[in-house]
Write a sequence for this structure.
């Protein structure tokens, strides 16, 4: 409050000065008049576009409005879903109820959890996402480092191929992948509807958006100063030792970021799930039919909202824990010369 | 500083005499390069490329994807069927592409703008950064699916108490703003583009996270010396932006442009992808589905290639 008061007083002082000085506006007017003839383009630009004084104030207000507005748009759907999850069946059809459920119940929560077989699906999803993201992270850091710091024949071609895996829609290789995993290595072993297809794909850098993670890690390693490794080499450390004890600790934040992406994207993924494990009990599969047994339209919507909340709530918690490293990973890249 | 600590860390193992090898450092380095990227090489050679080739074979044969049966070569039959027997592929590709084009530019400009804002110093920046990156991790896959369903939020926004213009699809659905823009700018050309951009503001926010991240880390990696030098020379904020920030991160504009194109064109809720996926659902249309996906892949790669070649010329590369 005190701050705001000071702020307003400051503006008032500028507009209507108390000690006989010229007011801010008057100063601007006369100042401009005197200089008008002499002013060339450069001076004009410096005077008018350098965001001093009033311009700066307008910018700060505008920036505040933009940030608050967009934050609101991002957070609002979560708030609504949260409210709906705790509403009762009467609340959701009562037009006078807004934001605070009048009766409140956990009916929708229970129903959504029941329909999704929540805890089992949750455990499966968590395990799958964990396996996949650990492998993706491993491959991305190792390969990213290889691409960033070693020169070898065919490196650029190989990197283009990595980017191609990112560009070619998964649907293009859907059928061959299905054939491969339904008759694994030509035997009768059927891996469809198990964790294996995605785990195997992630081990070889072919999982969901794996190309992007490799790209991010490569960019990060490229940005680290070369002296970091050179001193290690001079001290006699080998390539692996340098990588593990020098490069990886420096990349910790970026690795957490990649892990965060890979974990959450796998959690919500539908592309590969639909192709390779359509019947596995994981949240993304269960979610599609969560409201199918419900007749009433309003209740259907409420169940869908609740199910969506139940799926993303764990991710939100993971994100809140990881965000510090995630934000640092953006800032850490400022370490580049 | 970093170098010093690094040196100290490795000092202990360095006491061992270095092993003698006949290979030069160059050769050794290139060998280890292969070791580091070996998972990728294996994956491409054992899974990805064979799968691509097989998929291409399938698109030219009759009984695609049935294990044990030998694929019968039928020439361009599947492609012919896909284009002339099954209806709507080219129309779907065309309409979904045209609908996405303005979005690409809006996402680029928006993420660039927001990255610049998040790079400035202000109170609550940490919180703003956290909130702005929530959609990156949360608005994918199944959440997009839920976003496209109707939600209780529709009812909330329909209510008298709150007129926020955000609707449950998650989409920005303020009819008033849209019609205002339309009447101000005319119902064609610019007006349609701008009103379309407003209509999809929520989509834009949720799908520009990675781009924001890439821009932001680019801005962060610009050496502070440059800014200081500019300040000493008396450059204004405006000049600093156009003469330093913008050229320095211009390579990232290309990266983000390509990423945006790919992300929008192969996402699960892209109309063409949905169209193709539908054909994969029945065994009898597998072959046609592979033909569809190959046509789309080729079109997409062509598009990406053209964009790359066009924009690459405008980029300032530092090294």
């Amino acid at each position: 409050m005190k701050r705001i008061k000071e702020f307003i007083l400051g503006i008032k002082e500028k507009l209507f000065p108390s000690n006989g000085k010229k007011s801010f506006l008057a100063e601007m007017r006369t100042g401009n008049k005197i200089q008008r003839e002499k002013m060339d383009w450069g001076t004009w630009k410096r005077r008018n576009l350098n965001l001093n004084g009033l311009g700066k104030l307008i910018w700060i207000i505008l920036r505040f409005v933009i940030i608050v507005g967009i934050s609101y748009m991002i957070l609002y759907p979560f708030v609504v879903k949260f409210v709906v999850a705790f509403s009762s069946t009467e609340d959701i059809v009562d037009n006078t109820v807004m934001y605070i459920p009048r009766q409140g119940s956990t009916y929708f929560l229970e129903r959504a959890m029941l329909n999704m077989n929540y805890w089992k699906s949750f455990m499966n999803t968590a395990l799958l996402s964990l396996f996949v993201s650990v492998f993706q992270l491993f491959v991305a850091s190792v390969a990213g480092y290889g691409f960033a710091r070693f020169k070898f024949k065919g490196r650029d071609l190989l990197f283009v191929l990595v980017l191609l895996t990112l560009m070619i829609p998964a649907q293009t290789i859907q059928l061959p992948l299905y054939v491969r995993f339904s008759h694994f290595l030509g035997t009768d072993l059927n891996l469809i509807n198990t964790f294996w297809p995605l785990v195997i794909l992630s081990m070889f850098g072919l999982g969901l958006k794996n190309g992007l993670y490799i790209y991010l890690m490569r960019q990060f390693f490229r940005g680290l100063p070369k002296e970091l490794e050179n001193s290690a080499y001079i001290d006699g450390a080998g390539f692996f030792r340098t990588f593990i004890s020098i490069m990886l600790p420096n990349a910790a934040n970026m690795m957490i970021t990649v892990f965060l992406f890979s974990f959450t994207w796998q959690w919500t993924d539908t592309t590969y799930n639909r192709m390779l494990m359509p019947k596995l009990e994981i949240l993304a599969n269960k979610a599609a039919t969560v409201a199918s047994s419900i007749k009433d339209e309003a209740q259907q919507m409420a169940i869908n909202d609740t199910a969506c909340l139940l799926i993303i709530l764990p991710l939100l918690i993971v994100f809140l824990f990881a965000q510090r490293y995630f934000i640092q990973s953006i800032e850490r890249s400022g370490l580049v010369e | 500083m970093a170098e010093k600590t690094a040196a100290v860390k490795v000092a202990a193992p360095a006491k061992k005499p270095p092993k003698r090898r006949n290979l030069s450092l160059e050769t050794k380095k290139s060998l280890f390069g292969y070791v580091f990227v070996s998972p990728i090489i294996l994956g491409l050679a054992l899974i990805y490329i064979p799968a691509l080739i097989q998929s291409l074979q399938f698109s030219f044969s009759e009984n695609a994807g049935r294990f044990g049966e030998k694929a019968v070569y039928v020439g361009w039959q599947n492609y012919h069927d896909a284009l002339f027997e099954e209806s709507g592929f080219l129309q779907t590709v065309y309409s979904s592409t045209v609908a996405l084009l303005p979005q690409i530019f809006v996402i680029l400009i928006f993420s660039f703008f927001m990255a610049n804002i998040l790079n400035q110093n202000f109170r609550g920046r940490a919180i703003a950064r956290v909130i702005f990156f929530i959609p990156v991790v949360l608005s994918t896959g199944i959440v997009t699916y839920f976003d496209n369903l109707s939600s209780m939020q529709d009812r909330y926004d329909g209510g008298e108490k709150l007129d926020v213009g955000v609707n449950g699809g998650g989409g920005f659905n303020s009819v008033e703003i849209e019609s205002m823009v339309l009447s101000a700018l005319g119902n064609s050309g610019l007006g349609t583009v701008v009103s379309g951009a407003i209509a999809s503001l929520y989509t834009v926010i949720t799908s520009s996270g990675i781009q924001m991240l890439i821009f932001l880390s680019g801005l962060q990696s610009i050496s502070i010396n440059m800014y200081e030098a500019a300040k000493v020379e008396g450059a204004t904020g405006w000049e600093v932006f156009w003469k330093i920030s913008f050229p320095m991160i211009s390579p990232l504009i290309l990266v983000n442009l390509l990423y945006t194109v790919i992300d929008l064109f192969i996402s699960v809720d892209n109309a063409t992808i949905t169209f193709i996926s539908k054909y994969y659902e029945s065994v009898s249309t597998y072959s046609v589905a592979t033909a569809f996906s190959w046509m789309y892949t080729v079109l997409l790669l062509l598009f990406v290639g053209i964009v790359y070649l066009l924009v690459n010329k405008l980029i300032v590369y530092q090294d």
User: Anything to note?
Assistant: Residues 1-15, 159-176 of chain B have pLDDT under 50 and may be disordered.
